[in-house]
Amino acid sequence: MTTSIAGLLMANVAAAQEAPTIQLNTIVIDSSDTSPIGPDKGYIAKNTMTGAKTDTPIREIPQSISVVTREQMDDRFSEQIEDTIAYTSGVTASPWGVDDRFDQFLIRGFDIGPYAVFRDGLPQKAIDFSGFKAEPYGLERVEVLKGPASVLYGSNEVGGIVNLVTKRPTKDPLYSAYASYGSFNTYEVGIDAGGPLDKEGVWTYRLTGLFRDGETQTDFSRNNRVFIAPAITWSPSADTSLTILANYQWDELTPNTFLPIANPAFPNIPKFSRSFTASDPNFDRFDADHGSIGYEFEHSFNESWKIWQNLRYSQQDTDYRHLYYSSMIDDDTMGRTAFTVDETATLFSVDNGVQYDYEGKRIKNTLLMGLSYDRQTVDGQNGFDTGPSLDIDDPVFGIDVASPPIYLDRRQTIDQVGLYAQTQTKVDDHWLLTLGGRQSWVEDKTHDRLSGTTSEQSDSAFSGKVGLGYLFDNGMTPYVSYSESFTPTIGQGSTGQTFSPSEGQQYEAGVKYEPDFFPGTVTGSVFEITKSNVLTPDPNDPNFQVQTGEVRHRGFELEAIVNLFHGISLTGSYTYLDAEITSSNVEGETGNRPALVPEHQASLWAKYTFETGVLEGLNVGSGVRYVGSSFGDNANQIKVDDYTLVDAAISYEKNGWKGSLKASNVFDKEYYSTCAGDNDGNPMCIYGEGRAVKATLSAKF
């Protein structure tokens, strides 16, 4: 481009005496990062791999999708995956309060957190109590695809998925490190390095690591982690690449703590502090030792044909012991239950794809055909028994607690095969048509060591999707879509018949807007989701269940990510959910609102960057999150109040050094994340996270 412009200028000079001056049009070079798996520059992401498994602009996906970029994670308090998506429309983060066992969230009102997590397009779901909890520092971005996603991702709950995109090797040298200290005596150190390994850049690498030692707001808690993630890429040409991704993570974390609250049966129960625990430090722990290794291979034969294969093997060893509140024995004494888990879970996944791109005079089409296979296993024991009681007026901790008897000892293997196809068609550079379908086969085999029996269950399901959109020249894209999902339901009815998979259907209509007069994206959508084949008690035999239950969620979402003017970045969202149990055999549940689901949610985050003057390098950010009231039970007898939280951050960067101070729940709002009924049906609640502050010093070299 430089040579061409110089040639034009020289030609103009030579002809200046013979011809009038020619005014050349301004050439604008867009240097924004449009990689669908990169960190992006700033708050705005343009492309995604999650929405279609092809490199597609977000505005061309006929389904709501939100992307949290690396800069958003760096600017806000992002200790867990829940923190990274807390400002995302349609998402309720940390519905179970302070609970480090899993990544927990709701999408469009469905409590699917541990079972909706993918990493680099492959499942990283919880298996029993092994959650494969992710470290945000090792990620480039986090993407939330809302609504059914079984066509591309197989067995999934109807609410959607969260796809975590791992940090990858870089072409340019990258060296950074940080040290931090924060609330609850928590300190961290981390490194992130990458770049070429040879002069030609054929081999590149990335190494990310973190060490954390600390606690949470709960007494006797632990928040310890060792994380390391090496990666290497071999790219002998522009047409071929192989990236090997691995990680190891060792966690010592803390389970949740439900506490009783005053009620008609026990009106004198005091209000416990957030630090109070019903557990015991000699017994409670959640130790997880997990890691994974895999690769991403891609080869283009020409401009039309491309093949790829993604593969990963993950394993987690879980040592979990929990002494938790079960019910009140009398006004002064808590009853407790002892629960243990000792298991090993594995997850092997491979996804193969063939992509064909066609471009004619009026039509552009991308055809994707894929074959995927997943095998998940869990092998271990669970124990359960009544535990020692606790005097709430004079609690004694550090006691000896006997291990409960084993009630479950099994090895379970679930195999899933999926054959899928998707076509994305663009007509006259305006009309968008997306069609997709998947046929899935699922085999479940469980060997019960206690009974010496083996049970097997086979399921199959077809899932489809269709979407239609129109690209206006002004950046507006209205769309409509229909999509389906399925989830196997393990178990048998009263006659010995196995259960059919639960099914989900979603109708969605929306508008995506990318204005051309300032950087930003605005998305609005309305949707209706129905989940059928839900288990509900058998009216003829209360010892069994039948699949006549159904729930329906309708809603509206609005999300905006914009740069209002020079130096300001802003994200905002609003979610309205009308959720209803439309069919249940439990008396009084039909017509009620499902537990945990708030009707209204809203958030706003803004950051200002001083780019000139004496304050150059200073960043100031603040945000507010509102979560409306909900119910802790499907009977709608236990209400959970709404709450509003304020977050803030300030940082200063100069000459590669950066100091920052971040805080979540700045005003230390005391609130309950959720409540439920204890063993006697009386209310018990779990606290949400109080104020947490973190000071960090980092450097880039």
Written overview of the protein:
- The chain has 701 residues and is mainly beta.
- Helix content is 4%, strand content 56%.
- The protein has 4 helices and 37 strands.
- The chain has a 22-stranded antiparallel barrel. A 5-stranded mixed beta sheet has the order 3-9-10-7-8. The protein has a 3-stranded antiparallel beta sheet with strand order 4-5-6, with no helix packed on it.
Task: Summarize, please.
It contains four helices and 37 strands. The protein is mostly beta strands and 701 residues long.
Describe the sheet with the most strands: 22 strands, antiparallel, barrel
The helical percent reads under 10%
Q: Which blocks of ≥5 consecutive residues have pLDDT under 50?
A: 1-32
The beta-strand count equals 37
The helix tally amounts to 4
What separation lies between the terminal Cα atoms?
31 Å
Radius of gyration: 27 Å
* Nearest-integer average pLDDT: 92
Write the layout of secondary structure elements.
Layout: H1 2-14, E1 47-48, E2 56-57, E3 65-68, H2 70-75, H3 81-84, E4 91-93, E5 105-107, E6 110-111, E7 117-119, E8 122-123, E9 139-146, H4 150-153, E10 160-166, E11 174-182, E12 186-196, E13 203-213, E14 224-237, E15 240-253, E16 259-260, E17 285-300, E18 305-330, E19 333-359, E20 363-391, E21 406-427, E22 431-448, E23 453-470, E24 476-487, E25 502-513, E26 520-537, E27 545-562, E28 568-583, E29 600-609, E30 618-627, E31 630-631, E32 639-640, E33 643-654, E34 657-664, E35 672-677, E36 683-687, E37 692-700
Parallel strand pairs: 7-10
Antiparallel strand pairs: 1-2, 3-9, 4-5, 5-6, 7-8, 9-10, 11-12, 11-37, 12-13, 13-14, 14-15, 15-17, 16-36, 17-18, 18-19, 19-20, 20-21, 21-22, 22-23, 23-24, 24-25, 25-26, 26-27, 27-28, 28-29, 29-30, 30-33, 31-32, 33-34, 34-37, 35-36
